[in-house]
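chain below, 332 aa
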Amino acid sequence: MSGKKKLISELRQDFVSGEWAVIATGRGKRPHDFLKQKREPFRQPKSGCPFEKLPAGVLAAYSLDEEWQVGVIPNKYPVFGRGVCSFFHRVGPYQWGEGVGFHEVVITRDHERSIGRMRIEEVELVIRAYQDRYLALRNDDCVEYISIFHNHGKLSGATISHPHSQIIAIPVIPPDVGRSLRGSADFFHENKTCVHCHLLKYELKVRDRVIYENDFFAVLAPFASKTAFEIRIYPKRHEPHFEMILAQERMVLADALRSALAKLFRGLKNPDYNFFLHTAPIADSKEFHHYHWHFEILPKTAIWAGFEIGTGIEISTIAPEKAAEFLRRIKI
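prediction:
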């Protein structure tokens, strides 16, 4: 047999968390194959939509062109709420505590336009709302971590089609974040530098997985992508805490986030997706100085089956290098 052997798949390890992913190159998926997937539009009528008007009790509101553009309200059906956070109960070998925290919704005014279709100025207001509410919630004694996330489309878990994000402040550090923190701390202990800065420097040098960049942010397809067309947005300036983003950086982050989502919208014809923030927990800033906050975007291009559920190893049917090349070419 002559020539290079064609691989059935590649096992790739996330350099920070240590988690494995399978890049199933042998399945021969090309970027345009994802355009053939049937997607039912997720549109609900304006009439009866709970997010068409800002209700009484709004926590924050942001205006543009003399109209409110972004509003923050308490979630009507919260997952976490007021209670006693410092006490955990023991039941046999188990422990449990009250679901204490905060659950808020960040609403954008337009009933139809997702973030990838907004103006940069509108996206900046969304990011400003994230930052302001983060700063407001972090001082509560019960808050250990603040999760900011956005569900787009039915497959993402969204139950209301009107674009909105959610903010949940909780009294524990989530396990996924914990794995990322441990990997970051271990690398810093051994190398005296930030692992994400180390990877970012390499990615911007080789450029195989760079999708977009501006002065302050880089948009990448991660080497060990957990799903096809996974995207991460990293600040080029090292900073553990998202809430410390500077005012001049917000607009540039808005450009990076909008560009990433616009490329997905145009390139994959509006796929469902989740995006979320990974940032250092609420604590003394020196404790997590090694960490590097970032956004992760996970398009819903596949459904978890038995292997993924049973092993925790996810399968991507396109190499991140090909995904990045495809998305780079999408004009927005």
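Helices lie at 120-137, 175-191, 195-206, 247-267, 306-311, 320-328. The chain is about 25% helix and 25% strand.
thats it, cya
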